[in-house]
Design a protein that fits this description.
heterodimer; A: mainly alpha; 3 domains; three-stranded antiparallel β-sheet; 39 helices; 5 strands; elongated; B: mainly alpha; Helix Hairpins
């Protein structure tokens, strides 16, 4: 009996309205007595509304039937009925939950007027009604109830600009509601009912001119309320001026109600699906483009809100068009909950930070907790993993691809990229501290609602991953490790470094030790190599806030990347890797600005990859990576998209402008990881794609030839650009770009030998570039310089670093006896075997150029004259040297016995590209010749030993004059002159005159003008927003007319 | 003749309702004074109410009371549809609420900005 009372009366969904209305009466009453008690009633009512929604939704999730609510005990159509099913429950719970959090956030302002509390309750109740009602006129009532409460809440703020914005909002929404009412009455005229289900059941009656006009009015009204471009200036003004508390509720709450109204009336509007999709897609794309020009934080959030509602609208129309009802909760629900939490959190954060211009958000710099919260919310909004938006966008793109809606995929990906551009530009501003900043203190209590939204985002993302039946635990392991280290972030730096190493080693081993073939080889490089190079992080004793958690996420996401069996798991790890490496670059000395370029290029690459996976899914119906090969006719396109994504990530020519900044400005030890280890993930991806697509289907050759040229041109120009650098880290950055170019060419050869060469060079590049970046880290930590002409003669201070550098450089160059020779030898053999002679010639040329910059590095840093101020420098820290010498040891072993390396590589490749290496004893045979590494090693040692012994004898027997530093008989430079006359400055001036025209920054100029054009386009697209409320009302009327015309109204 | 006159009643109401809607819209779009815009909105609202009433009207119909005068079987053809009238009542109340809020905005805007001209309230833009 009591049970029945509780479930059927107290917890019935109607209780939501009862609570809101009852509290509405009680709040003023209690307020007479005591304001505090009124607030208690208010919060209790909201909490009750959340609880009722949660309990009923849970029951439905556990299999209970949807709750049909009939008012006055009469069945529809003679009464108004409401429904609480799965969708309604989800929306209502989300809205009430966010309303409760929003009330907590906004309480300091809300509590000043008891009427504000009342209005807030009414507004939330109105949204609940919009979601639950099944009666069209009742829907109108709830829209109006919500609107009036919203108007009044906006009007609580009495400043001129808020009132002006509010009035524009009233005019626009009133006109839209008028359309809704007209549409409703016409539909009633046609069908004789106000019940939506009744109308749907008599869909055939809604036809002819009246039917057309009626549905057009409903459609226009709902679309306008969702703020479509360009009829949305009134919404933007409110978002910009109103307090974050109300702006958030409009953006996520009211919009949710209207969106649900569109969802439930969609069966009546099925003639307009294309219009709905176009309106949504255009709004998403254009708002995100215009966002690029916006500097006002809240208006920026407005553009983002409008864009996200556009995306939701597009998703709704697309799922209806494609008839994939089963995916609706994940796609639309995922996008909805993602936007709800992220946008509400951002609006509230904007309240707390209280800075108008995004430039002034620099007050957040150096405040880890705030930055973390801010970053999570932005990442969620962009649709990065692990948040719900990521999964939803993935599903949406996949479903669109299988439905053939390729144009829409392009719209979604381009819009997402633009959104990422302005949101992370904002984050960039927040990272850069300025001297004038006077930060307000934000108490943890005030931050709690915002922080809670981030936790809910994680939970929702995890829930969606489970729902999608991914290998969730393994995929989220990097994040768990990162979270654990973040909680320990106040420990000393070296201890954290150690913990990180242990975690990554253990986690990485667990994730990758059961892998086989190519994945296992990359497991050694990415995880084993990652841990080895990360050992160097011990050289810095400072706290490095945030560094170690992010590094753990990065390295473990590389491990999960290797484990991925599905394109979803692969893309998840890929994006996680992108995000964590981006954040790590921001931690570098001047890393903030270059990191943005890095992120945008990486995201563009990721979206190419996503598009490729989507096309493959459309062709094969499977997200298994192993099924990629069955893509049929689209194989060439899939291959091109995926390969494009991966080569952007290797810094291919034209897409390379992120390379010098990212590698150059990251922390020195992290540069080593980035170049030696992380860049190999792109090589892994490229190999995977080439293996699954380029080989299995025979048509993949043409893109492969293009890829070969891209690789070799990258190698050539990377080397050329490296030659003319003064900054040692930028030199190494361009060098990495060039070396990866060779590897890309090797993969593009699509032959057994070509792939052996590519893999061999991959391992080799990991080995020597790890040494070089760590050696340079040692030089920088001692000299505090990065410009090579400011160094010199360091061989005396840092002999071990010098030896390591020299060996790395020999291992990099194509000369015997070290590993570099083998790589070049294999590559030339493979190219000649293929008959790509021009590429071989270019490879030869770029190897020679590479020699120039290597020589410069060694000569100007370690040889020549030492600077006076460097006389007292010590050798680099031992912990930096340890990984370098371990790597040298590996180089030596592989140089002497390349079979140890080559045989496993060859075996790993053979499932894909048949063939094996022919060994004659220890000599590798090809049809062009043979390579006997141990013998070469011996010969070289012999050739060098003879003059060495001779010189040794000379020094012992002859009288040698020691040359002091300023004895210019010896020196090739003139001391005591300005630095510009230093011989190491503009070292290759003569080559610059000959070849410099090749390396003019054309790509940089191109991308700069792309940015400029986008901004001009954005400026011309926002001319509609002139701030005049009447113009905005006119936009709405024109919208109606435009929808009338494009849907064939002129033919009536 | 009486048939024509009867038909014209609902048609006249419908047409004048639509006319009022257009006049109201015209007012909202062209009158820069906020008070005049609100008047325009009221006209628009009233126009909609007239359209609603005209839709439910049955020519020559009687009050929607089923009794001896109007037997059940003839109800649908002889009585005026009561639902639109009921809706209009609700819509009037809502229109009243919106108009009241608009007017209070007008008062506050005038207090805050010392102007009632909508084109002087354009500082939020782009």
């Amino acid at each position: 009996m009591v049970d029945k009372l509780v479930t059927e009366v107290l917890l019935h969904p109607l209780g939501i309205y009862v609570l809101a209305l009852a509290a509405g009466f009680l709040v003023p009453l209690f307020d007479r007595a005591h304001r505090g008690s009124a607030i208690l009633v208010f919060l209790a009512a909201l909490a009750g509304m959340v609880a009722i929604a949660a309990i009923n939704l849970l029951a439905i999730l556990n299999g209970a039937a949807p709750i049909e609510i009939e008012t006055a005990g009469i069945a529809p159509p003679f009464s108004i009925n409401l429904r609480f099913g799965l969708y309604e429950g989800g929306f209502v719970l989300a809205v009430n939950g966010i309303a409760l959090l929003g009330a907590l956030h906004w309480l300091p302002s809300l509590r000043q007027h008891a009427s504000a509390l009342l209005l807030y309750l009414i507004m939330v109740m109105g949204i609940n009604g919009m979601v639950m009602t099944r009666d069209l006129f009742n829907l109108f009532i709830f829209i109006e109830i919500t609107s009036i409460a919203t108007y009044a809440l906006i009007g609580m703020e009495r400043t001129g600009s808020v009132l002006a914005a509010g009035f524009k909002y009233i005019v626009a929404t009133s006109v839209a509601s008028a359309f809704f009412l007209l549409g409703t009455i016409f539909l009633y005229y046609l069908t004789g009912t106000l019940n939506i289900d009744g109308m749907v059941a008599q869909r055939e009656l809604i036809s002819g001119p009246v039917g057309f006009i009626a549905t057009l009015f409903i459609l226009t009204s709902l679309l306008i309320e969702l703020k479509p471009y360009p009829a949305n200036g009134w919404g933007l003004d409110v978002y910009e001026t109103a307090p974050g508390g109300i702006a958030a509720l409009i953006s996520v709450g009211v919009s949710a109600g209207v969106f649900f109204a569109l969802f439930k009336t969609l069966p009546l509007l099925d003639d307009y699906l294309l219009s709905i999709a176009v309106v949504g897609g255009a709004t998403f794309l254009v708002s995100n483009l215009i966002g690029l020009k916006q500097d006002n934080a809240k208006r920026l959030l407005g553009y983002s809100s409008i864009g996200q509602m556009g995306l939701l609208t597009l998703a709704l129309a697309a799922t209806a068009q494609l008839d994939v009802e089963a995916q609706l909760p994940l796609i639309v629900g995922g996008l909805f909950i993602n936007h709800l939490l992220a946008k509400a959190g951002l609006f509230w954060l904007a309240d707390l930070v209280n800075r108008k211009s995004i430039g002034d958000w620099s007050v957040l710099a150096g405040r880890p907790l705030l930055l973390l919260v801010f970053g999570i919310l932005l990442a969620a909004l962009v649709g990065l993993p692990p948040f719900p938006g990521f999964w939803a966008k993935w599903l949406l793109v996949m479903e669109m691809a299988s439905g053939g809606l390729y144009g829409w995929i392009a719209v979604i990906l381009l819009g997402s990229l633009l959104e990422a551009a302005y949101l992370f530009r904002w984050f960039t501003q927040a990272l850069q501290a300025r001297k004038t900043d006077a930060p307000d203190s934000i108490s943890p209590g005030k931050l709690a609602p915002v922080a809670l939204t981030t936790l809910l985002l994680f939970a929702a993302g995890y829930g969606m991953a489970v729902q999608l039946e991914t290998d969730t635990l393994a995929m989220f392991l990097p994040l768990f490790a990162g979270a654990a280290l973040w909680l320990l972030d106040s420990l000393p730096g070296r201890l954290k470094s150690l913990l990180m190493l242990v975690m990554v080693a253990a986690g990485g081993a667990w994730l990758t030790l059961d892998l086989e073939g190519l994945n296992r080889i990359f497991g050694y490089i990415l995880v084993g190599g990652g841990v080895l190079v990360s050992l160097a992080t011990q050289y810095r004793g400072d706290a490095r806030k945030g560094f170690y958690p992010l590094l753990a996420i990065l390295l473990l996401s590389l491990a999960t990347l290797l484990r991925a069996h599905t394109s979803l798991a692969f893309f998840f790890s890929w994006e996680l890797m992108t995000l964590s490496s981006y954040l790590l670059i921001t931690l570098g000395r001047n890393g903030v600005k270059p990191s943005l370029t890095y992120l945008l290029f990486s995201l563009a690459a990721a979206y190419c990859i996503l598009a490729g996976f989507a096309l493959a899914y459309a062709a094969t119906g499977s997200i298994e990576l192993a099924a990629l090969g069955g893509a049929g006719d689209t194989t060439g396109l899939v291959f091109s998209l995926l390969a494009a994504g991966f080569v952007i990530k290797t810094g291919a020519l034209g897409m390379h402008i992120w390379v010098p900044g990212a590698y150059g400005e990251a922390d020195d030890d992290f540069s080593a990881l980035l170049s030696a280890v992380v860049s190999k993930a792109a090589i892994f991806g490229l190999l995977l794609v080439a293996a699954q697509l380029g080989v299995r289907s025979d048509i993949g050759l043409d893109p492969a030839y293009v890829l070969g040229w891209i690789g070799m041109l990258t190698a050539t120009f990377g080397a050329l650009m490296a030659v003319f650098q003064e900054d040692v880290k930028r030199l190494l950055a361009y060098s990495s770009m060039g070396q990866l170019g060779y590897i890309v060419t090797g993969i593009a050869l699509m032959s057994h030998l070509g792939w052996v060469a590519a893999l061999y060079m991959t391992v080799n590049h990991f080995l020597f570039k790890g040494i070089l970046f760590l050696a340079i880290a040692g030089v920088i930590v001692r000299t505090n310089e990065r410009l090579m002409y400011k160094m010199g003669g360091l061989i005396k201070n840092m002999p071990f670093t010098f030896v390591a550098t020299m060996i790395a450089i020999i291992a990099m160059s194509g000369v015997p006896p070290l590993t570099g020779f083998g790589g070049k030898w294999l590559l030339f053999n493979a190219i000649m075997e293929k008959g790509w002679y021009w590429l071989a010639a270019l490879a030869f040329f770029s190897s020679a150029v590479a020699f120039l910059y290597m020589f410069r590095l060694l000569q100007t840093v370690f040889l020549g004259q030492r600077k006076l101020e460097h006389a007292q420098l010590r050798e680099a820290p031992v912990i930096l040297l340890v990984p370098q010498f371990v790597l040298i040891g590996i180089i030596m072993v592989f140089s002497a016995y390349p079979k140890l390396l080559l045989d496993p590589l060859s075996t790993a490749i053979s499932p894909w590209l048949g063939g094996n290496l022919v060994w004659d004893g220890l000599a590798l045979q090809t049809h062009l010749g043979y390579w006997n590494a141990p013998m070469i090693m011996g010969v070289v040692a012999g050739v060098w030993m003879v003059p060495l012994i001779f010189l040794l004898l000379m020094t012992l027997t002859l009288k040698i004059q020691k040359v002091e530093q300023f004895n210019i008989v010896f020196a090739a430079e003139r001391p005591h002159r300005p630095e510009e006359t230093h011989f190491a400055y503009n070292f290759f001036a003569h080559y610059d005159r000959a070849l410099g025209f090749l390396v003019k920054p054309r790509a940089t100029a191109f991308w700069n003008s792309t940015v400029e054009w986008s901004h001009s386009l954005a400026a011309s697209l926002r001319i509609f927003y002139n701030g005049n409320g009447q113009t905005y009302a006119l936009h709405i009327v024109i919208y109606l007319v435009a929808l009338y015309v494009v849907n064939g109204g002129l033919q009536l | 003749m009486s048939f024509l006159a009867d038909m014209q009643i609902s048609l006249i109401v419908l047409c004048s309702g639509l006319g009022l809607i257009l006049i109201g819209l015209w007012g909202i779009l062209t009158q820069r004074n906020i008070i005049r815009m609100i008047v325009g909105f009221s006209l628009l609202d009233t126009g909609i109410h007239m359209v609603m009433v005209s839709i439910g009207y049955v020519t020559g119909g009687t009050a929607p009371i089923i009794n001896d005068a109007v037997p059940m079987a003839e109800a649908t053809s002889r009585i005026v549809d009561p639902v639109p009238s009921a809706l209009v009542l609700t819509a009037i109340v809502i229109g009243l609420g919106v108009t009241a809020v608009m007017l209070s905005y007008a008062v506050r805007i005038y207090r805050a900005r010392k102007t009632l001209m909508i084109d002087e309230c354009t500082e939020s833009k782009w």
